[in-house]
Write a structure and sequence with these properties.
Length: about 180
Amino acid sequence: MRKEDCFYLGKIVSKFSYKGEVLVKLDTDDPEAYEEMESVFVSVRNNLVPFFIKQCRLHKSALLRIDFEEIQNEDDADRIMGSELFLPLSFLPALEGNKFYFHEVIGFTVTDTEHGNIGTITGVNDTTSQALFEIEKDGKQLLVPITDAIIVMVDRQEKTIRVTTPEGLVALYLE
């Protein structure tokens, strides 16, 4: 399995018991959706390795307590400490309406209610406090905040996103 075919689920942040159970900080708005997992890919030396799960359950909000079949004690748990967990993209539940996964909208055309076609999404920058669409138009890059106030409509069939950008934002980049 390649990382490009997976989504990041979370990171192993600490040991829970002497039997090798670990706590995973999940990167999700819906941690309950991952309580019934049977397996997960663990990044070990930059390779995705399948690990099978004996039991997992929520532990204090966004932490998932996992008992892996392959991890029998604290020494085993130490070897995977800090590792990232991944699941295949096919495990993501389908989103509807104006909700979307960042990877899903790469290549979508963005149209502004005032300026028309403002380019194609080439990426999403989520390293800042506000996630941004990275949009390319005629060799220029636009950065548009991803907020409910700006996104008017997501059309998966036409692969377009209609936005209403703040006054002056598009002109800042394209003029």
